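From the methods appendix. Each design record in this collection lists the tokenized structure first, followed by the designed amino acid sequence. Records were kept in a plain field format so they could be parsed without special tools. The example shown here is representative of the layout used throughout.

RECORD:
FOLD TOKENS (208 positions):
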């Protein structure tokens, strides 16, 4: 399968027909020359669309309304990219819309790349925002990581945060449960360390 690069994008140039490309997707009047086999292998939604008795089955061109050209182009480049296994196509600017499109077309490998990127970039400063995104797409591994990082925050900080209050109740409880375990482990470490001053009896409250 031939690969070419445009002057502006890293990855495939879909603006002209490539080797054995057999379908044109149109987004915001921009044509993307693609391969049915690649789309079908990547997405069960496209597979059904292109193999079952849908109007698109024998179509040479399919319009995709409601999509943005730049976002859909980035989505296709992730599917086609040789570096996909390294996750180099996902970043801070594109992971949210990649997740949205991947969810619509059930492209699990794109979701996996986004999850991998998010897990590696969760910090105390962004964990609640990422938690909300992960919650929207039921990204369990990402939610687990976010809950772990968020549990290090004092409870009063969490309870005063709009982002935290915007999480589902069960996920708020998950953070508090991890926080309790984190404080219990801290208490045990203090007790085991004979060189330290005795930990205050109210260590749980002092840590919070």
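DESIGN:
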């Amino acid at each position: 399968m031939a690969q070419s690069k445009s002057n502006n994008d890293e990855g495939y140039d879909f603006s002209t027909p490539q080797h054995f490309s057999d379908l044109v997707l149109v987004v915001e009047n921009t044509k993307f020359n693609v391969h049915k086999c690649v789309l079908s292998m990547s997405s069960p939604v496209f597979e059904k669309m292109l193999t079952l008795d849908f109007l698109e089955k024998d179509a040479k061109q399919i319009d995709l309304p409601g999509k943005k050209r730049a976002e859909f182009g980035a989505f296709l480049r992730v599917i086609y990219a040789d570096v996909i296994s390294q996750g180099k196509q996902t970043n801070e600017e594109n992971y949210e819309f990649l997740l949205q499109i991947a969810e619509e077309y059930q492209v699990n490998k794109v979701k996996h790349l986004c999850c991998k990127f998010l897990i590696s970039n969760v910090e105390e400063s962004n964990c609640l925002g990422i938690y909300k995104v992960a919650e929207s797409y039921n990204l369990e591994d990402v939610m687990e990581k976010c809950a772990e990082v968020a549990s290090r925050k004092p409870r009063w900080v969490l309870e005063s945060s709009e982002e935290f209050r915007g999480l589902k109740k069960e996920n708020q409880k998950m953070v508090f449960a991890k926080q309790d375990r984190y404080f219990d482990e801290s208490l045990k470490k203090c007790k085991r360390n004979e060189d330290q001053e005795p930990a205050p009896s109210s260590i749980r409250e002092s840590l919070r």
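APPENDIX NOTE: The chain has eleven helices and three strands.
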